[in-house]
Write a structure and sequence with these properties.
The chain is α+β, with helices and mostly antiparallel strands and 180 residues long. The chain has a single domain, classed as Protein Transport Mog1p, Chain A (3-Layer(aba) Sandwich), CATH 3.40.1000.10. The chain has three helices and ten strands; from the N terminus they run αβββββαββββαβ.
């Protein structure tokens, strides 16, 4: 495996670890802006924000619904600079992530791989299920694009039975993401 594929695999593995080990959509929104990364987005006011977690730019986490809530739904954003060693097409990058997930995630099942749009650029969207280390069945959606030699990667993770409930809040963030 060459260096650039290893880097993609390592990034995908890290993002997966964050998503897999880690409140309903609210109409009230806060604005998140990071000038150094060149991004701005809205997020539900009842979701918590954490910045600079490993290679993640920002993570938004829903509140616990009750004492039986064993997984907090979350959406994470990563922005990575591409180098000469990691210069891939969008299809190559998406393919490398899917291959990595097939090898690394327990009960990985690819549900969808389709074109999308992110920051007004062509993007890839993958939707899949997997289990985290606590054996919680999760449903995840990743949307990624490459713009100006940067990879923008947004991943939403939810307990499989709560995915549809939290998807509107997640899509608020995805659809509002812009470069500044």
């Amino acid at each position: 495996m060459n260096y650039s594929v290893k880097k993609i695999t390592a990034t995908a593995a890290f993002l997966t670890a964050i998503f897999l080990n880690t409140a309903a959509y609210a109409a009230d929104l806060f604005v998140y802006e990071n000038a150094s990364a060149g991004v701005k987005m809205n997020y539900p006011a009842d979701w918590d924000k954490r910045e600079n977690i490993g290679s993640l730019l920002v993570a938004f986490t829903s509140g616990k619904e009750d004492s039986n809530d064993n997984f907090q739904e979350n959406l994470n954003v990563a922005v990575q600079n591409m180098t000469d060693e990691t210069r891939f097409t969008l299809d190559e990058y998406t393919g490398a992530i899917i291959s990595s997930y097939k090898e690394q995630l327990e009960d990985f099942n690819l549900l969808e791989s389709a074109p999308a749009t992110l920051v007004n650029f062509p993007a890839s969207k993958i939707v899949y299920t997997a289990k985290n280390s606590d054996k919680v069945s999760l449903k995840l959606m990743m949307v990624l694009t490459i713009k100006d030699n940067k990879v923008y990667m947004v991943t939403f993770a939810a307990a499989e039975d709560k995915y549809e409930k939290f998807l509107p809040g997640a899509m608020t963030i995805v659809d509002s993401l812009e470069t500044i």
